[in-house]
Design a protein that fits this description.
Elements: H1 2-21, E1 24-32, E2 52-60, E3 63-71, E4 74-78, E5 108-112, E6 115-123, E7 129-135, E8 145-155, H2 158-186
Antiparallel strand pairs: 1-2, 1-8, 2-3, 3-4, 4-5, 5-6, 6-7, 7-8
Helix pairs in contact: 1-2
C-alpha cells in the first residue's frame, strides 16, 4: 500500500505542475481616463477618454496567443502585424503582477473596426508611469496616447481543479478501504 500511496502522491504532484505550465486565461476591462503630457512622443491625449474595452486573452509563457472582446462596441482581435512607428515593435507580452504595468513598452496590439490599437506600460521614461492606449487612427503610424484604468484578472482553469479534487477523493476512498480491510482482518 505504501508504494501505491507514493504513486498516487506523484500523480497528484504531476497534475498540479502540469496545470501551472499550461496556457492561462485572463479577463480584462479598461476605460480611458484623463490625458497626460505625452512627453517624448509628441502626441496629445483625450481622444480615448471614456472609451471602454473588455474581454479575455490567453497567455502561454508571457506571450499573448489569443484575444477576444469589444472596444467601444467593436469586436477586438489580436494583431500580430506590429504597430507601425512604435519602436521596438510590439511583442504582445504580458507580465502578471508587473509594476508599474503588466504590459511592457512594446505593448499588446489589437484590431477593432480596422484600426490597430496598442495597450502599453511605461515606467515614466517615455510618457508617464502607468498603462496607456494609443491608436493608429491618424494614418501616420501613431496616434494620441491616453492613460487607462485597467483591471486584469486571472481565470482559474476548471478542468485542472476538478481533476485534483477527483484525485483527492480517490485517495480518500483508497485509505478508507484500506482502513476497513485492516479492521476486519484484525478481528
Amino acid at each position: 500500500m505504501k508504494k501505491i500511496s507514493l504513486a498516487m502522491f506523484g500523480m497528484v504532484l504531476a497534475l498540479v505542475c502540469a496545470q501551472s505550465a499550461s496556457a492561462q486565461t485572463y479577463d480584462f476591462t479598461f476605460t480611458g481616463v484623463n490625458s497626460v503630457n505625452s512627453g517624448n512622443c509628441g502626441c496629445v491625449g483625450d481622444t480615448y477618454v471614456g472609451d471602454t474595452g473588455s474581454g479575455s486573452f490567453v497567455v502561454s509563457g508571457n506571450q499573448v496567443v489569443s484575444l477576444s472582446g469589444t472596444f467601444d462596441g467593436e469586436a477586438m482581435t489580436l494583431d500580430t502585424s506590429g504597430f507601425a512607428n512604435n519602436p521596438p515593435a510590439p511583442n504582445n507580452q504580458f507580465y502578471p503582477g508587473g509594476v508599474p504595468s503588466e504590459f511592457d513598452l512594446s505593448g499588446l496590439d489589437f484590431d477593432a473596426n480596422g484600426i490597430i490599437y496598442n495597450i502599453f506600460g511605461d515606467n515614466g521614461a517615455n510618457v508617464a508611469v502607468g498603462t496607456f492606449i494609443q491608436g493608429n487612427d491618424t494614418g501616420s503610424g501613431s496616434g494620441p496616447v491616453t492613460p487607462l484604468d485597467i483591471s486584469v484578472t486571472y481565470v482559474p482553469e476548471g478542468g485542472g481543479l476538478s481533476m485534483l479534487v477527483l484525485c483527492g477523493l480517490g485517495l480518500a476512498g483508497a485509505f478508507l478501504f484500506k482502513a476497513r480491510n485492516g479492521l476486519l482482518m484484525n478481528r
